[in-house]
Amino acid sequence: MTTHTTKMLILGSGPAGLSAAIYGARAGMAPIVVQGIQPGGQLTTTTDVENYPGFRDVIQGPWLMEEMQAQAEHVGTRLMWDTIVEVDLTSRPFRLIGDGGDVYEGDTLVIATGAQAKWLGLDSEDALKGKGVSACATCDGFFYRGKKVAVIGGGNTAVEEALYLTNHSPDVVLIHRRDSFRAEKILQERLFAHKGVTVLWNKEVAEFLDGGGTTGLVGLDLRDTVTGEMSRIDVEGGFVAIGHHPATELFRGHVALDDDHYIAVEPGSTRTSVPGVFACGDVMDKVYRQAVTAAGTGCMAALDAERFLAAAEFDHLAVAAE
Question: With helix as H, strand as E and coil as C, how does 196-227 read?
């Protein structure tokens, strides 16, 4: 068993965690990043990225994360391949234990464990991810300009994504397995008033249809949830919008979570309910969920951590001087 110590311990290695590492390293905090079960975060499963600032051409998600990782290491970050199974946030330094027994201690802790989109769980859905099937209209809607697309879901996210897609597609179909939405009334009013959106009630996706070769998604087989009757629609894009799972299981009972199990932070900051613990990226952001906003909050977390340590050092010196 080895104990690793640092001024800033970061859990998660997506855009949020690596941005925090870059800023933390430049501030002299010699951060350690524990990469977790999905090094690089959700961008490692994304192919074309066209909306990350700084690149005029389409780039690849895995490549972008490799570059972020290399930059973090270049400025002094240590990257550790481990999965944390236990945390102790009752005192500083905070203590995390990996599944192999290694111990990680940090004077501050940045939680950047992200969130995962919820999927329908169909084999055909999995086979067509990135080939017409997506869980982020804001990320991928641009690729379906002028094409017919479908959104699956009935909450705020589904309605918002359907409305967003009308910026690119003249024909958006919103598929919901019930006969009414859970979305806020004002969003429903906007949706029903939009001529570019058609709602299919009491329908669920039975299969995503593959056109073969490089064609990708060509349609959906739908099942009526009341009668069981089958039907088919032709679409070139399918957006699953049934929510996200923030990766907060490890921290339940240790930091305050909101009603949707995201880590709660003070407005305008990354500070959690535990002094010295900060959260950034999709683990605390259920509104924007973009790589660039995750990176921005990673920067915020590093600056918040640096200021926390500076204040703690000042208090220590003040007490010593008395």
Answer: CEEEECCEEEEEEEECCCCCCEEEEEEEECCC
